[in-house]
Amino acid sequence: MHIYVKLFKGNDFQVAVSSGQTVQGLKEILAMQIAIPVEEQKLVFKGKALADDNRLSFYNVQEGDRLFLFTKKSDKAGTPSPGNVPKFAADLSCCTTTALWDKLRVFLQRHFTPQDVEKVLIEFQKDFNSRMQKLSLDDIERFAITKLRQTNGVAEVS
């Protein structure tokens, strides 16, 4: 299912989860997508703070519902957040990637049960976001140069 997460004083974005997902699991997905450490996240649904150990179904979170994400101060003052993610990687969680996940979902539905589709999709998203966070500026530059050469008709020599 798709739910929306609204950042305090920020945009909202769509996240694919299953109703059996724990709040902790959702926070881990959010940490990868928007680079806010799990321990600094506080999720609220219908005015109630969500406990990490409970499943989303416990709170009756359903397709299309909106959760609110607040950040709380880290206990480790002055410690940089893990995985210092470039701004572009954090922005990948916005609606532009929704089309990608929707197309992948359609493809997966041909091969898996509906429950398994969501599980596989969540794992794809985790892997994708993890890999995006590990990109260096050099990686991005090499990729951009290669793509620019290809679009300008220059063959790339390996």
Describe the protein.
It is found in: Cytoplasm, Cytosol. It comes from Magallana gigas. One of its GO terms (biological process) is tail-anchored membrane protein insertion into ER membrane. Its main location: cytoplasm. With 158 residues, the protein is of the alpha+beta class. The chain has a single domain, classed as Phosphatidylinositol 3-kinase Catalytic Subunit, Chain A, domain 1 (Ubiquitin-like (UB roll)), CATH 3.10.20. Helix content is 41%, strand content 15%. The protein is built from five helices and five strands. It has a five-stranded mixed sheet. Helix 3 packs antiparallel against helix 4. The radius of gyration is 18 Å and the shape is globular. About 13% of the residues have low confidence.
Tell me the β content: 15-25%
CATH class assignment: Alpha Beta
Shape: globular
- With strands numbered from the N-terminus, the spatial order across the biggest sheet is 2-1-5-3-4
Write down the secondary-structure element order.
EEHEEEHHHH
Question: Helix fraction?
Answer: 40-55%
**What is the count of helical runs?**
5
Average pLDDT for all residues: 78
User: Structural class, from secondary structure content?
Assistant: alpha+beta
CATH superfamily: Phosphatidylinositol 3-kinase Catalytic Subunit, Chain A, domain 1
Biggest sheet architecture:
5 strands, mixed
Total discrete domains: 1
What is the CA-CA span between the terminal residues? 42 Å
- Structure summary, number of beta strands: 5
Radius of gyration: 18 Å
